[in-house]
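Lecture notes, continued. The same structure-token format from the folding unit now serves as the input rather than the output. Read the line below as a description of shape only.
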């Protein structure tokens, strides 16, 4: 084989593999709660945004908003929206969510409030009951969004 052919083959196969490494950008906004551990609010990689689970911490006070389950769910979704906005996205950008709840008795209430944010073409999702959530939260929502 001629060296020119080998270089051409190398250029077609190897160089594109290294050139397509997606960047990883940390997304942060003070309009959502600061992480309470060693994680980021979200990571943007290429056109995909991975949003960490949001709980009902009020970003202005740093305290949980658990007066009612309805207010807690609203705060979780507001926090999620703030992170999406910081990445130049919105609820229509979400492809998938995961909802964690400490009691599936909240399922109907979660669906009612969640449905207000996803009127058309809602994302794929699962809802899982867990034993406990950070900061004594009753609901946590994570998301994957795309541009």
């Amino acid at each position: 084989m001629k060296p020119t052919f080998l270089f051409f083959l190398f250029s077609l196969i190897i160089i594109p593999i290294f050139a397509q490494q997606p960047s990883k950008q940390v997304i942060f906004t003070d309009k959502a709660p600061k992480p309470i551990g060693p994680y980021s609010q979200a990571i943007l990689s290429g056109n995909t945004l991975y949003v960490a689970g949001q709980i009902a911490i009020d970003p202005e006070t740093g305290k949980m908003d658990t007066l009612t389950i309805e207010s807690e769910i609203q705060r979780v979704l507001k926090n999620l929206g703030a992170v999406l906005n910081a990445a130049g996205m919105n609820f229509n950008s979400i492809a998938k969510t995961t909802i964690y709840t400490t009691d599936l008795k909240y399922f109907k209430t979660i669906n009612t409030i969640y449905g207000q944010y996803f009127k058309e073409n809602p994302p794929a999702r699962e809802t899982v009951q867990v034993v406990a959530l950070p900061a004594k939260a009753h609901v946590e929502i994570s998301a994957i969004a795309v541009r």
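Point for the exam: The first strand starts at residue 24 and ends at 27.
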